[in-house]
Amino acid sequence: SAPEPPRPRCCYLIRAAGSSSAFMPLVRLFAQKTLQKAIPLKSLQAKLCGIWGVNKKTTKLIVTRVDDWTGEEFAEDVYVSIRAKATPERTRDVVLESCRAVQAAFKDEGLIANVRLETYVGDSYFHVPPPSS
Length: 133
What we know:
Blueprint lengths: L25 E7 L8 H12 L8 E6 L11 E8 L6 H17 L4 E8 L13
Parallel strand pairs: 1-2, 3-4
Antiparallel strand pairs: 1-3
Helix pairs in contact: 1-2
């Protein structure tokens, strides 16, 4: 059979305990423009790579600063939105454990994180990276 085409670097998956998958999900961070606390991306990236078991060269954290948001009941500093491919080993317990670990990584940096994770079906995912230079 023909070899599998290379996986785009942005197609990240959560690595379940004991799994051979080692891809990080897409992680987007939202913070209000008025947040005075630092968001140490390099430190957070290292911690999240440890959670997902991946290399820093294959990951990217994206921060979006916003003017305001609704839902003040949580008083979070950062809203963490994660998208990950749905896989059989990605059980509810595995996903929730990973979300708690992400929340703890932010707490270690002095940030209160509201973490959400959404899974998607792999066949419904598309990506066009910029051409290599």
